[in-house]
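Ticket opened by: R.M.
Priority: normal
Category: complex prediction / small molecule

The reporter submitted a protein together with NAP and asked that the result be attached to this ticket for the collaborator who will pick it up next week. Submitted input follows.
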Amino acid sequence: MPHYKIAIIGAGPAGYFTAQALQNAQSDHLTFSIDMFERLPTMWGLVRSGVAPDHPKIKSVAKVFEKVASEPNFRLFGNVEVGRELDIEELCPRYDAVVMCTGLSIGKKLGIPGEDLPGSLSAAEFVPWYNGHPDYINVNVPLSGDTAVVIGAGNVAMDCARILGINPIELDATDTAEDALAALHQSMVRRVYIAGRRGPEHAAFTAPELRELPKLEHTNVVIDAPAVQAAHERALAAGQIEKHTAANLEAWRLIAEHPHGGHQRTMEFRFLSHPIEIKGDGKVEEVIFGINEIKGGKVIDTGETYSIKTNLVISAIGYQALPIQGISFRDGKVENDNGRVLGTNIYTVGWAKRGPSGVIGTNKSDASDVVKLLIEDLDPEPKNGGDITVVIPQSKTLIDQGRWSKINAAEIAAGELVGKPRVKEVDIAKLIALAE
Ligand code: NAP
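Result attached by the on-call engineer:
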């Protein structure tokens, strides 16, 4: 019975769902050994460092990941960076297939003047900051002003705006990074603008995220009722309204009609606003927006502008890949054909493959599609290329599944003492100490 060795790079949702798809594809005629490599000593990728801490239910998928990892054909090699400490060229000959599940970690740029001023951040920095990603704990998030601006009309922008706009007591019982939570408690931000360049009918937010807003206990949520009405009319005029748009328009109507609670904190949506410039003397002081209008279904710049005074701008307009030595990238993702990296035994799944779209669960079907192709491509004879452990740097403390379980258990135990799901350790050396 042929037995193939597969390497998965990246212990995020795409990685675990790929491992699960391989496990599910096993039969009396086909078996796999799965080695998963992860650069951090902590696992679960975006489930740990992306999903908003006030959305704990989404994180329960980690149970599925741990079940996958508990299977006898799974080995974990955490705290090893492929492309830097372990070359792709070392991996490929030792495995029948290598699957890149490395996600996208760089925020796309607005490309406007002032974008690099202190106080202008990408969601790709802000989100891992509040989620305790070791690489982002020192991000400087100025929270001393009363106004913050989030640019983008997708679910990441919504997460950023909620974290800034809710009362931090709502985060006390979550796994928000301790330092970030302390900073949010000191935050002076009381108004968060969320700016979309097209209309409410075009927003990439999903309806469940919008429907949550009127339920916020300490935050007024504002959208101009005539703007919602105009969006509805435009959507009707454009023809049949798609399901996603109809659900969003209904959610917008509920938000617009919801009586404001007179709270100190406000989240306000501004549509048809495209950022032109971020201004300031050595730091962010103001954002200038151009005002758009929609004519004949097209978004048109009216030439008019308005400005918002703020010292914090977060752009949440999409992600691209951090290049990895030995892998070819195109358009911000791994260059691939439906998940195959042509001419190699490399495959890719998740955001690294398809770009920054879809929810955590989207990676499950994506993984299963790519694993089908991978199986089709397998040589009749497995490679038998030798064990990887001989080329892993000896200087590293490898985080195997047993060690990761210790880190996980220690964080959960620390959380139990203070009524949280876990207290995240954010220092690499301390994480490794927890594992030993
Ligand atoms: P997204 O959904 O693609 O939204 C990106 C937003 O940025 C869009 O509104 C886009 O506007 C805007 N944008 C792009 N370039 C811009 C520019 N130059 N100036 C101004 N605005 C610009 O991306 P995302 O929010 O990063 O989310 C990525 C994926 O993760 C999505 O599939 C999302 O649903 C998912 N996610 C889900 C959850 C959840 O389920 N709770 C949470 C977070 C993320 P245009 O439409 O005009 O291009």
